[in-house]
Amino acid sequence: MGMFSFIKEAGEKLFGIGHAQAAQAAAPAAPGADEIAALNQTAAQAIAKYIQSMNLNVEALDVGYDAASETVTVAGVAPDQTTKEKVILCCGNVANVASVNDLMTVSTPEPESQMYTVVKGDNLSKISKEFYGTPNKYPQIFEANRPMLSHPDKIYPGQVLRIPPA
After folding, report:
1. In the predicted structure, residue 27 carries a pLDDT above the cut 60
2. What pTM, to 2 d.p., does this model score?
3. What domains appear along the chain, each with residue ranges and CATH number?
């Protein structure tokens, strides 16, 4: 549990499509408290839907978003540490999210992974050499970040990756 920081300009663009875009267009220039609450709820629903689209099953999943602080709060019970970490990454690797407040618990505790923020010029082999001493363990990093990663060569600066224990 804790607070995780992310680069808010990087990540999936979930806000600005579908209902969120319609809600923003309908909102007045200076939205009131009700409009802000509705936009926050729409954003939270978009993030929850994204988590579900990644087939990450969490009991009693509860996602909240606060636009003022650009913070996602996520709670629920993950079946294992891997699922919990992937849910946190799904929440944080979204554009306009600067931090994730992790209130999740795990049914089966395991050692935590390290988190790594991708910088320009990185690839999974380079990251593998830095963390494991060999570039040949890049498939381990790739698998640890699936299904968010679709290909080992498709990472971008600002993205946060799970680096599982060796």
Report:
1. no
2. 0.80
3. 2-108 (no CATH), 114-163 (3.10.350.10)
